[in-house]
Predict the 3D structure of the following.
Amino acid sequence: MKQNLPGNLRKIFKPRNIVFGITILLILLFLLIAQKYKISIDEINSLETTSIPLGRVYHQAMDFENQAPLYFLSLKLWRFIDGSVFHAQLLSLIFSIAGLITLYKLLSLFVPQRTAAFLSLLFVLNPFFLTSSFIIRNISFTIFLSLLLLYSFFKVFYNDKKGPVPFVLFSLLSAFALYSHYYLGFLLLSLGITLLIQRKFSAFISFILCMFFPLISLIPIILDIQKQTNTYADYVFGTPSIKEYIIFLTSRLENFITDYKWLGLSRTYRFAMRVFLIVAFLFPILFFLFKNFKNLNEKNKSMLIIFVLLLFFFSSLFVIFNWDFVMPRHVIPLFVLLILVVMLFSNESHKKTSKISLYFLFLIIYLVSFLNINKFNVHNGYKDAAGYLAENYDKNDIIIAYPEAVGRVLKYYSPQNFPTIEMLPLTHDYRESYNINKWIFHSKGEAIPQILDKTRNAPKIFLLTPPWLTELHGIDFNIEMVDQIFDSLFVKKNTFSYHGDIVIQQYINNKEAY
């Protein structure tokens, strides 16, 4: 193909120029979508965590966010330049661009540079990757680190000509990764086991030596990690059935391929996409892998082994614990490996029809997802709810947000109207400073006097709840109990639902309850 191109076109379509063009495309898509983007509750948490003094960000990340601290410390330092939301989103874009460059370098170890550039385009257009480029959470950062670990792994341990410096740098990178996202530890574990399976014993010993520093560096925060783990482990509801496990796998596949939760796709589309992904996406790839495994080169075999090991580890977490251990943000390394394996092994096929059909399949999936982007953030329920409260809220009224994150969203969208909002927090035991409202779940009898005390002089009470809480798996959020308590104490006047984001229930104080 290269020989058929005129000289000028060959210069234009150099692999590096293609990657540069993809970077420009990513920036343009960022500018297009970021303007419409509706900031989420989790992102409000990120902004609040990084709005406090730098010395407290670490503890806020560990105790409140329940995550590794490095991303939040990085975001805090970045926001010293500019504290705006757009500037915070810009950091995610920078991590995505760094991930794109690393991806191209990684793919170039497996395929020709021109092919690597084209595959990089497919990766960037993935809706999950694209939305991570402007979400103010530890997603694009984790994707970048996953790719960087893989690239460094193959450069260091599959290269005979090297000195001690690459091993030292890999060790430092591994420690950096663990302080950024704990689940990258499963990726590191998979890398080490892969060397053992591939019988690269000398490289395996070097890898073990490289892991000493990352493991030692975790000692100062090991108790915090145990505390965070216990928080999730408290919500174990028994071993999942085979059906639940299949739902888990296919739902994560949907997250990674179409990112439907961000694009607001319908339930019918989600079901159809699930069937489509299994039949048209996974089956041909698995068939090709099992049929051609012996013919794969060493690096491709290693990539497949890493993917299988990661899938095993995350599946084990799901079976032993629950959904909360394997949410999409936890299993981002699995997303990276899934896309890489699919692209690399389709490209390994010597049949052009196999390659073309795979690329076509990718593009069809992305096209369907982008067509649904018109539904994306057309309505902002939080802004509409803030507008309603601004018109109906008086200074003596009480706004009660359940959980507390809902209140933070309302304060973000309209801080001048709601300087104080009573927060009924999530009842995780690790949030010791917020346990004053723990009664909301345990005893209706204990809840009543505390609610009455907070609302004694309020003519109107506004209860804010998010409808999505009832869809969570494995966490005992009892919205019905909250509704029953308020219905028994006050006279309900109105109920409003705003685009699936928030529900406002307006009550009139019932003096007879006192």
